[in-house]
Write a structure and sequence with these properties.
Length: 271
């Protein structure tokens, strides 16, 4: 009888232990799932909430701006310029097109010549930008841009797109390099080049007053208003725009001023 009692107690202990293990695994699994969902939302959904809404049709356009434009490169592929000519952004026509021209001291965008010619033919105010590279000198990059891009009266000033700084270069030396490019190109066209960069990058590396002399094209996505307190001319407010004539996404921009002001900013605009 004692043997059966001991056996019964042992079996009950085993079942209790198994139940505890079962609940431990269940609680642990649920904890892992909850933690995973929280991490995913915190790092991949919440910071890009505006982008998710832009991608899925809830596009918001900055208030108070009537002059809209886009910037393009080979990433947009072949563009149907007939459709683009009649496309609108927030019921406003597309007024200007910024076009990638060169990168570093040896790369030219494969669609630049075609895009540059068509943008003028179809009645857009056009501009050309150079994408900064940390692998070659400012002087070489400026000369390469000037060799490949021939801006005309009525075109927007040349644009320098800066998004990175060499890790082994001081901020002061980096700023001197950027100013070298700007000065060389300014000497050719006798207009202040436009400086494009992200809000945080400008504040960290190009925030000194000397750069305020150059028209600023700010990239600041998915916000209702610009936090930058200094003067600016263009605002690239999303990279998830959709337009007739362009397959895939395209960057949307606004100009901070009137159409007359935009014309005055162009090469020869004050003549």
């Amino acid at each position: 009888m004692l043997f059966f009692f001991r056996t019964f107690v042992a079996n009950m202990k085993k079942k209790t232990k198994h139940r505890h293990l079962h609940w431990t695994w269940l609680v642990g699994g649920l904890t892992v799932v909850v933690l995973y969902v929280w991490v995913f939302y915190s790092f991949f959904v919440s910071p890009f909430g505006f982008r998710w809404r832009a991608l899925y049709g809830d596009m918001k356009f900055p208030d108070g701006f009537e002059i809209h434009g886009i910037d393009i490169s080979h990433y947009q592929g072949e563009i149907d310029w007939n459709k683009l000519q009649s496309a609108t952004i927030g019921r406003c026509p597309v007024r200007f097109v910024m076009i990638k021209a060169t990168e570093g001291s040896s790369k030219i965008d494969e669609m630049f010549d075609e895009n540059f010619e068509n943008s003028l033919e179809y009645g857009f105010i056009r501009g050309a930008y150079h994408f900064w590279s940390n692998k070659s000198s400012a002087r070489d990059q400026a000369q390469f841009f000037l060799d490949k891009v021939k801006l005309e009266k009525g075109d927007l000033p040349p644009v320098l797109d800066v998004e990175s700084k060499p890790k082994d270069m001081s901020v002061e030396d980096f700023q001197r390099e950027i100013l070298t490019w700007l000065h060389i190109v300014e000497d050719r066209y006798h207009v202040k080049p436009i400086l494009y960069t992200y809000y945080k990058f400008k504040m960290q590396y190009l925030g000194t007053p000397v750069f305020d002399d150059y028209p600023y094209w700010i990239a600041h996505y998915y916000v209702d208003h610009i936090e930058y307190k200094g003067p600016w001319k263009f605002w690239q407010h999303t990279d998830a725009g959709r337009l007739a004539g362009i397959r895939g996404y395209v960057d949307f921009n606004v100009y901070n001023g009137s159409f007359y002001d935009l014309r005055q900013l162009c090469i020869g605009g004050e003549d």
